[in-house]
Amino acid sequence: MIKIENLHKSYQMGLNKLHVLKGLNFTINDGELVSIMGSSGSGKSTLLNILGLLDNYDEGAFYLDDLLIQDLNETKAAAYRNKYFGFVFQSFNLITFKNAQENVALPLYYQGVTRKKRNRIALEYLDKVGLKDWAAHLPSELSGGQKQRVAIARALVTNPKVILADEPTGALDSQTSYDVMDILKDINKTGISVIIVTHEHDIAEMTNRIIKLHDGQIMKPEEAEKSASYV
Amino acid sequence: MFDIDKWQEIFSTIRKNKLRTFLTAFSVAWGIFMLIILLGAGKGLQNAAMHNFKSDAVNSLWVYTGKTSKAHEGYQPGRNIRFTNKDFNETNRLNKEVIQSSSARLSVWSTDIQYGDELVGHRVYGVHPGTEELEQLTFEQGRFINKLDMKHFKKVVSISYKTRDALFKKNEDPIGKYIRLGDMPFKIIGVFKDQSERDNERVYVPIATAQKAFGEGNRIHNLAFTSEKISIEQSVALEKDLRKQFAKRHHFDPEDDRAMYVNNNIENAKEIRSVFTGISLFVWLIGIGTIIAGIVGVSNIMLIVVKERTKEIGVRKAIGATPWSVINLVLLESITITTLAGYFGLVLGVGILELLSANMPNSDFFRNPEADFSVAVSATILLIVSGAIAGLIPARKAAKIKPIVALRDE
Predict the structure, then answer these.
(1) Is B192 within 8 Å of B122 (Cβ atoms)?
(2) Contact: A97, B406; criterion CB under 8 Å
């Protein structure tokens, strides 16, 4: 599904060059539940941006469904994002003036689905996350956990192959965090790959595989074990 | 383009920033409003000026008597020049090639116009048949004086509709009736209407009859003629020729501007027209300046809106919005604000002009202020174009937003 080979990425910071990702190699298969862990500055968000086609990389190769992703223009990237990925953000990023149902329906709008049909589908997905009765509510009328569930419904509505979640529980208390993780796990059971970026150890533990990043490199399992002991 | 979601989004952002949107919209509306009012006022002035001309044939030349101001051929200055039938006949003969219709005029002073017990103080003029064209008369009933009336010194009169209304009862047919001009009965042959209200306080009789009946001999007070399709330069040359011709007959200096007066409508009309072209150009300039201020305002607002919505636009891009759809959103919002606001200003401006036009009596200085259809159409096009221009820079900025920005949590 996702194959990364010797991936490098650096940012130009004034005169200095900040080397963020220093040659990553990994593969994520169809239907995996993976977490990318690391402290801030380890490059995990940069990696997620590259995986989600939100950013370019400098060196190496990135295959998505055996397709080499390289120098996509914006329009094409938008189309791929819409087709392959569902995004879940730490701060939910729901559109404030749209109600839950309209928020969920938005990705379908960009796919050109008719209004009637996308509202019906959106309601279906809201039902899946247990928020059918809240369809007409604005984000401001929802709790944090509810907002994140709406965001998850929005990520799912296009039937993506991969869910990319950037600190999905970062803004939630621990009980709500576990609820959200349960939903993500359920999603994974339907065959959708779920990639979660987090710095919380207990959240990462709930995934099937942990990719640990440290200073832009993947830690070997034995090093990871060692570091895990003092996290 | 018609898409409920898009409009819903546009209106919800407008709703979210009511005051700001209102202030910008107001500047655009004000710009268009002022443009329409100024154009309408300019048009009102122009209409009045053109109307005054139209009341007489636009291609006419009028010659009036004066008093000499220079000594010439042994005559002292200060001599009154009097025109006679000879002047009229000679003018027609000497300028045959250019004259179309012509008429001399004799004002009959202090003559009451009477019918039964009714009396009205309108003027009596003795004229030639050419006056019908010179004054651009239209007839409600009957006809004007003709050559036969002249030849037989007939006591006939063509009255204005005002004279008719003053003398006759509503359903009485004036044609064939006799009215008294001074002591003499004249038979009514027609009822006319002049475009200039002032000129409707007149009645016309054949000049030959008038000279005889009122004891004026061969005297005329002025003469006029129309000349078809001559340029301003030609009309000015004609004016000079006329002066020479009259100077020779009346022994005054052709350079003596006060011995006779020529009112050259051909020249005047064109001059007035060019003045009004200038005025309307100036008005457009001011109007467009005001609108540009509005455009800058809208553009500014949209820039702020884009900045505030950076995160939202980023999210949209993350879930599949193409750059074009983002540009589209911003452009459409900008066009919507300018078009709606501008339209409001347009309607308000036109409404006020209509109100003015309906409630203000027409005068010789100002009449029918109006914004014509072509102005409204060009203003509307101007609005849409300016909305697009106003949205262009912010839209490009919005399209360049990287979705990463939305992902970053501060």
Answers:
(1) no
(2) no
Place B55 in a pLDDT band, splitting at 50, 70 and 90.
low
- The C-alpha of A222 sits at a distance from chain B's nearest C-alpha, in angstroms, of 31
- B13 Cα to chain A: minimum distance (Å): 8
Other CB atoms within a 10 A radius of the CB of residue B167 amount to 22
Separation of alpha carbons A119 and B317, rounded Å: 20
Q: What's the rounded Cα separation, in Å, for the pair A129 and B208?
A: 106
Q: Going by C-beta distance under 8 Å and a sequence separation of 6 or more, which residues neighbour residue B63?
A: B83, B91, B222, B223, B224, B242, B246, B260, B261, B262, B263
Chain B residues closer than 8 Å to A113 by CB = none
Contact call for A82 and B320, based on CB within 8 A? yes
Count Cβ atoms within 10 A of the Cβ of residue A212 and give its class: 0-12 exposed, 13-18 middle, 19 or more buried: buried
**What pLDDT was estimated at residue B319?**
83
The one-letter code for the residue type at A227 is S
Residues of A in contact with B315 (CB under 8 A): 89, 93, 95
Q: Tell whether domain A31-53+80-229 is in CATH 1.10.1760.20.
A: no
As to burial, measured by CB atoms within 10 angstroms (0-12 exposed, 13-18 middle, 19+ buried), residue A166 is: buried
Residue A226 pLDDT > 60: no
Domain borders along chain B are 4-53+272-407, 67-98+228-258, 101-224
As a whole number of angstroms, the distance between CA A26 and CA B63 comes to: 105
Measure CB to CB from residue A90 to each of B4, B324, B409 and give the nearest one.
Answer: B409
Q: Do B320 and A78 touch (CB under 8 A)?
A: yes
Interface of A with B in 171-230 (CB under 8 A): none
For A39, phi then psi, to 5°, come to: -75, 170
Instruction: Give the residue extent of every domain in chain A.
Output: 31-53+80-229
pLDDT (tens digit, 9 = 90+) per residue, A97-143? 889 999 999 999 888 888 889 999 999 999 989 999 999 999 999 99
Which of B291, B406, B301 has its CA nearest to residue B32?
A: B291
Q: Which of B56, B58, B80 is nearest to B67 (CA)?
A: B80
Supply the ipTM of this predicted assembly.
0.83
| pTM of the entire predicted model | 0.62
The reply to whether A159 touches chain B by the CB within 8 Å rule is no
pLDDT in tens, B127-155: 999 999 888 888 998 999 999 999 999 99
